[in-house]
Design goal:
heterotrimer, A mainly alpha (297), B mainly alpha (332), C alpha/beta (337), A: 297 residues, mainly alpha, MetI-like fold, flat, B: 332 residues, 77% helix
């Protein structure tokens, strides 16, 4: 009955969640790609937390040394230097402190708006549901990048504004998702069955509805985190996101654009890091999806 | 039919309200933002008057809608003619680019997806899955600049910017250079257009290709085990026929909605690609407008994007009825 | 009815079917022997999960690649297991055909009945057909074989008259009973010698099921078909078959003449099956306690041991072989050794 394998396992072992978690973990470990993703993510988080300790030239996040301008990768500067002589490796490392946390802020903000709206729409149905869903449908009509670019441009490009803009563009997807999940659960016959034997709506909601809705949601969130990093970087690249000298990965790449193809490292290195983080998030999301036994949409 | 058209119009109106409100109600003065820090108060005031920003907001909206119905979006701060004119001028280039990219993404996505789903070679399937996750994780700008740099270095004479070689001048009939060059019977121009399209389209199509391929592969795996496939196979239908005539449409049909969404996202991607490849389309125009805070142009571009999306969905709905008889006939 | 093993059209010897499941190796079909003579109608009776559908699929050669087979399946002397996919494909439809269990999901939802039926008629012996050659050849082949007429005629044979309406329809537009008949038509169009019916009509209501069985019996007789009829219902098996193979957990438990199996079941499992059949007098139906064993860890000796009301010590240790009784019946049970 329950949608995800995790919940089935837990039920089978008598609602023992620790056992079920262990089982899921053992399944996850078998998936090489998913493990690799988790490892990459852990490394990235580690780098972000200890950025100022790890970076060889931590002050270079903001300080310029024009005499070292545009040096190619070498032993002293593993990623080379940028147009202001700053060590690129350090900037990219410190950039992790921006991209990763901000991705979470973006997704959490979207959730804060989208989830309650979706819940209300799903539980209350009727006119309320139609209004909310219509609003979401209309909001989606403008592609997320275009929306985020426009809002960021008008607010005035900055890191904060781009985070707000991206979060603002994504809430309808959360609302839709949650409302669809609530719908599915309402349809399940075991809801009626439970109600008929006297279980209160709240009990059903907590014991059955919530766990079943949350598991696919977790997968969606991981993918969203990756997508948030991409959007943030794209905005930065175009000059409409974090502004120089903030070492956001996309912004750094954007700065380096004028120096292509000779000083190719400035745009490429942050790009690779962006790719690695998005890849890791996606792969982890996939692994979770397989482990939790959720069907691909 | 009529109801559908009305629905589209209603959606567009609603979108225009949202865009309009966002632009007007967001903190910050668009006039001051557009003119920059150096502008004096009088200049800002004059600009506001010219843009009509001094009037009450509902009135502004009415003016906006009435001029929209007459085909005008308002004065653009960067081109100094009406924004609608520029958008219409640059739109065909983007349309051409996105259509080419989407066709490639869809066709390749379906072919690779079905093959991956049907193959018994586990290693190949694993590799394809791996590559597809990679494909949708790559930032578009990185792919674009990498292609530009590498191809530019390997083939110095290869065109890596613009829409067509600068020595060509073909009369503009449809605005789609591929077609116009054929109409002008200029095959050299045609190939020049293709040359300019290859890199941007390749960079653009990568994400949607990966997404479509993954979904089609998953659908194929699901359909493969279904009873009708086993039944027809058991009674003698050859596997090759089963694969493309029976399994493929069933696997692709649920992916159409996703394909439509990808097409709309492509428009967003074109903003980046056109900027990098200096491809004169709406995306490139849009980025310029946003950097310059050209309010009317930004509004126009956003509205156009919404129209694009709505039309795409209509086409997808139509395709659905053509492929799936249950949808087509149940409505009667 | 002919006698003599030269007339055996299908001989299954020591068939094992297994697969690698997450929990270990699942040995589902564990050494099945079965002979079907030409013109015979045999039934394989057993509950869900006993491996009867797997055996049917093994004969057709449509098992997914992760399921492995050992043993031999001889059709008219040829060992099917040893053939290549290409050779097996030639046999499907024209020599051996299959009627599926649930007709509503056994037809492609996006194509008309006519499309699917004529595709079968025209292209079943053309292994390499791609999208271009299909459309190029289609009209020519159709005319050549008079495919549409054959389709119409075969639908009439399964009592779908007038056939045009059904031909023009999509699967979702016809009823379950009609779909079942279409599936029968699909199996018959190739003029096969051997027909495998996998629990046909189980998903239909009882009246429709009866009509369908009547039709099947008539067609089988008219075409002198050899049939393997798979079912979980002993009474249906008795009605349609001459011999019954009772199957439990991947093993044949008993083989006898249909009437004898029903009237005097030897194996305890068959006895349980009989008790579970609803009777006219409304005597209570008694099920058999327990479940089919987990194939990854099946019982050591007789696989029915845990559920058998007449179990003995030896049943736990040693697996009973299928042996002949005095009156020519076969049973795999220590009670009769």
């Amino acid at each position: 009955m329950a949608k995800s394998r995790l919940i089935q396992e837990a039920r089978r072992k008598g609602d023992d969640w620790t056992e079920a978690m262990k089982y899921s973990l053992s399944l996850y470990r078998k998936d090489d790609l998913a493990v690799a993703g988790a490892v990459i993510l852990s490394c990235l988080f580690f780098i972000a937390i200890f950025a100022y300790q790890i970076a060889p030239y931590p002050q270079d996040a903001y300080v310029s040394h024009f005499q070292n301008r545009l040096l190619p990768p070498s032993q002293t500067h593993l990623f080379g230097t940028d147009e202001a002589g700053r060590d690129l490796l350090s900037r990219v490392i410190i950039g992790a402190r921006i991209s990763l946390p901000m991705a979470f802020v973006i997704v959490l903000t979207s959730m804060m708006f989208g989830m309650p709206l979706g819940l209300i729409a799903g539980m209350m149905s009727g006119k309320v549901e139609s209004v909310i869903m219509k609003l979401a449908d209309i909001w989606i009509a403008v592609p997320s990048l275009v929306f985020a670019l426009a809002v960021s441009a008008i607010l005035g490009p900055s890191l904060t504004n781009s985070v707000i803009a991206i979060a603002f563009s994504a809430w309808p997807w959360h609302a839709r998702f949650i409302r669809a999940e609530v719908w599915h659960i309402k349809q399940e016959t075991y809801m009626e069955a439970a109600e008929s034997i006297g279980a209160s709506k709240l009990y059903i909601a907590v014991k059955e509805a919530l766990p079943n809705a949350l598991t696919p949601y977790i997968v969606k969130i991981t993918t969203d985190l990756g997508y948030a990093i991409l959007l943030l970087a794209t905005l930065g690249f175009l000059g409409l996101g974090a502004q120089t000298p903030t070492p956001e990965w996309g912004t750094i790449a954007g700065e380096g654009r004028t120096f292509l193809p000779n000083s190719w490292w400035i745009s490429t290195m942050p790009g690779i890091f962006i790719f690695l983080s998005v890849f890791a998030f996606n792969v982890v999301g996939d692994g979770l999806r397989n482990v939790l036994g959720i069907e691909e949409i | 039919m009529v109801r559908k058209a009305l629905g589209i119009l209603l959606t567009l109106f609603a979108v225009s309200i949202i865009i309009f409100s966002l632009v007007r109600l967001i903190p910050g003065d668009p006039a001051a933002a557009a003119l920059g820090d150096q502008a004096s108060r009088e200049q800002i005031e004059q600009f506001r008057r010219e843009m009509g920003l001094d009037k009450p907001i509902p009135q502004q909206y009415l003016i906006f809608i009435s001029s929209l119905l007459r085909g005008k979006l308002g004065l653009s701060g960067i081109t100094f003619h009406d924004a609608m004119k520029d958008i219409l001028y640059y739109f065909p280039a983007t349309l051409e680019l996105t259509l080419v990219a989407m066709t490639l993404a869809f066709v390749l996505g379906v072919l690779i997806g079905v093959s991956a789903g049907l193959t018994e070679n586990k290693k190949l399937d694993g590799l394809l899955s791996f590559l597809s996750i990679g494909g949708l994780s790559l930032p578009t700008f990185l792919v674009a600049i990498t292609l530009q740099v590498i191809v530019g270095n390997l083939f110095p004479s290869f065109l890596i910017t613009g829409r067509i070689g600068s020595n060509f001048n073909i009369p503009r009939v449809t605005g789609l250079d591929l077609i116009d060059s054929l109409l002008a019977a200029n095959s050299a121009a045609f190939f020049s257009v293709l040359e300019c399209l290859i890199l941007p389209a390749s960079a653009l199509m990568l994400g949607p290709l990966a997404t479509i391929m993954r979904l089609v592969r998953a659908n194929t795996l699901r359909e493969k085990g279904k009873s009708y496939i086993a039944n027809l196979r058991a009674n003698g239908l050859p596997r090759s026929l089963l694969a493309w005539r029976y399994l493929l449409p069933n696997a692709v049909s649920p992916a159409l909605t996703l394909a439509g969404l990808q097409f709309a996202e492509l428009l967003g991607g074109s903003f980046v690609i056109e900027t990098i490849f200096v491809f004169p389309g709406v995306g490139w125009l849009g980025v310029q407008a946003m950097i310059a805070k050209d309010v009317n142009m930004i509004q126009g571009v956003a509205l156009m994007a919404a129209l694009y999306f709505v039309l795409t969905n209509t086409v997808v709905d139509f395709l659905h009825t053509r492929i799936d008889p249950r949808i087509r006939l149940k409505e009667q | 009815m002919q006698n003599g093993s030269n007339d055996a059209i299908l001989e299954i010897r020591n068939l094992h079917i297994y697969l690698n499941a997450y929990e270990g190796l699942a040995k589902i079909v564990d050494g099945v022997n079965c002979t079907v003579r030409k013109g015979e109608v045999v039934a394989i009776v057993g509950e869900s999960g006993c491996g009867k559908t797997l055996t049917a699929k093994a004969i057709m050669g449509i098992l997914p690649p992760q399921i492995k087979i050992e043993g031999s399946i001889r059709y008219k002397g040829m060992d099917l297991v040893a053939l290549t996919e290409k050779e097996r494909a030639k046999i499907r439809g024209s020599e051996i055909a299959m009627i599926p269990q649930d007709p509503m999901i056994s037809l492609d939802p996006l194509l008309t009945i006519e499309d699917q039926l004529t595709d079968l008629i025209c292209f079943k012996d053309m292994p390499q057909i791609n999208i271009f050659s299909y459309y190029a050849r289609r009209s020519r082949v159709e005319k050549q074989k008079g495919a549409r007429d054959i389709a119409a005629k075969i639908l009439e044979e399964v009592e779908l008259t007038p056939p045009d309406r059904v031909l023009r329809s999509y699967p979702f537009q016809i009823s379950g009973g009609m779909a079942q008949r279409v599936c029968i038509a699909m199996a018959l169009q190739g003029e096969p010698s051997l027909l495998i019916a996998d629990e046909p009509g189980t998903n239909l209501d009882v009246t429709t099921q009866k009509h369908m069985l009547d039709l099947l019996i008539a067609r089988i007789r008219a075409r002198h078909l050899t049939v393997i009829f798979i079912t979980h219902n002993l009474a249906v098996a008795r009605r349609i078959a001459q011999r019954i193979f009772v199957m439990y957990a991947g093993n044949i438990a008993e083989v006898s003449d249909a009437d004898k199996t029903f009237v005097d079941p030897l194996h305890p499992y068959t006895q349980g099956l009989k008790k579970a059949v609803p009777t006219l007098l409304g005597t209570p139906m008694i099920g058999i306690d327990g479940r089919v064993p987990a194939y990854t860890n099946p019982p050591h000796g007789c696989r029915f041991y845990p559920r058998c009301p007449q179990a003995m010590e030896v049943c736990k240790q040693k697996k009973p072989e299928l042996t002949k009784t005095k009156d020519g019946r076969m049973v795999a049970c220590h009670l009769y050794n």
